[in-house]
Design a protein that fits this description.
Blueprint (H helix, E strand, L loop, with lengths): L10 H6 L7 E3 L2 H5 L13 H15 L20 E4 L6 H13 L6 E5 L11 H12 L6 E5 L15 H14 L8 E7 L7 H4 L3 E4 L6 H11 L11 H9 L8 H16 L6 H49 L4
Parallel strand pairs: 2-5, 2-6, 3-4, 4-5
Antiparallel strand pairs: 1-3
């Protein structure tokens, strides 16, 4: 768990001067010791996409604090910032935790700061000042660091005509911090968002986008369900191969991690209510979820067709009215 409270040993609260109560937070090495690490290899999803994120961490680990240079920085034209985007429930927050543990467990001088989705709402007028202090702290050449932003579109929202001066100042501070002229290759930003279209375009231009859906194959969906049912009696009735075969013959690509979470929640609830659970119960619950998704897709298609027919009728009526008014101008 990440601590929000500064202590004498917390360098962020000492050096960056972030006041107690903000949602910029750090984890100490002591707290990390007793925490079960989240590893990239245990995250269910595209291995190729995970490698892109792990590569950022590996790049930072090459930083030499003595020489204050990064020998492989020339692989990137800019700092290796990344924004991970995709539908909710796919495990994007877990990716951030894995990145934190990956670099923490390999460098004693590593520093990790989280920007929560409440960073802008708490002490709103100090948002720019706190963000500048965070980047100033990360620029310290004596260590490596990561700035992790979960639901970061709430911090770096796309500017519109309705945006105020504080919004612009926050974006300006982010742009200067993410791509400074004196960058040494010792820190990077990894952000997540469910709504990449809400991200400020200038901030996005300083990041490499990585799409993340979570599980995408029958095997991965079943693997996720197995993880969700860990520690329950329901898992005893989970026949993985049978479920994979069941999904292979369906429109499983319509599924998302959130759908699997709902299946697991429903099965757990049935267990708590004392209902009889069997292998067929698990298969039926998964099939019901798939059927509801297919029906929702079909209903949406029907609505689109009905709307199109309605628009055509309106257009035809308007065309006829225009013809009549042209032919009989006195009407």
């Amino acid at each position: 768990m990440h601590s929000n409270q500064g202590t004498e040993q917390d360098p962020v609260h000492m050096t960056a001067g972030i006041t107690k109560g903000t949602t910029a937070r750090t984890t100490s090495a002591v707290a990390l010791k007793d925490k079960v690490p989240k590893e990239f290899k245990n995250i269910i999803g595209s291995h190729a996409q995970l490698l892109k994120i792990q590569e950022v961490c590996d790049t930072l680990l090459q930083y030499d604090p003595q020489a204050q240079t990064n020998p492989i920085l020339d692989r990137y034209a800019n700092p290796p910032n990344i924004v991970v985007y995709g539908p909710p429930g796919g495990g994007k927050t877990m990716i951030l935790s894995a990145a934190e543990d990956y670099i923490r467990n390999r460098r004693a001088d590593s520093r990790v700061i989280w920007l929560d989705n409440g960073f802008r709402t708490h002490m709103y007028s100090d948002s720019t000042k706190n963000l500048e202090k965070i980047f100033s702290y990360m620029k310290d050449p004596q260590g490596t660091g990561l700035i992790l932003g979960d639901d970061a579109d709430t911090v770096f929202s796309r500017r519109t005509a309705m945006s105020n001066e504080e919004d612009s100042r926050v974006i300006t501070a982010a742009l200067h911090g993410m791509q400074p002229p004196d960058y040494r290759g010792n820190y990077a930003c990894i952000f997540t968002t469910n709504y990449i279209e809400k991200f400020d375009h200038a901030v996005l231009s300083r990041c490499r986008p990585v799409f993340w859906k979570g599980p995408v194959t029958p095997e991965q969906f079943v693997q996720l369900l197995s993880h969700q049912l860990e520690g329950t009696k329901v898992k005893d009735y989970l026949e993985e191969q049978a479920l994979m075969d069941q999904l292979s013959g369906t429109e499983y690509r319509m599924l998302s991690a959130r759908d699997i979470n709902r299946v697991a929640t429903s099965l757990k609830l049935q267990e708590r209510l004392g209902k009889k659970i069997s292998r067929s119960t698990v298969e039926a619950e998964l099939q019901n979820t798939l059927d509801s998704l297919v029906k929702a897709k079909q209903d949406a298609f029907v609505r689109d067709v009905e709307n199109e027919l309605y628009n055509m009728r309106v257009y035809e009526a308007a065309r006829k009215e225009l013809e009549n008014s042209t032919t009989h101008p006195h009407l």
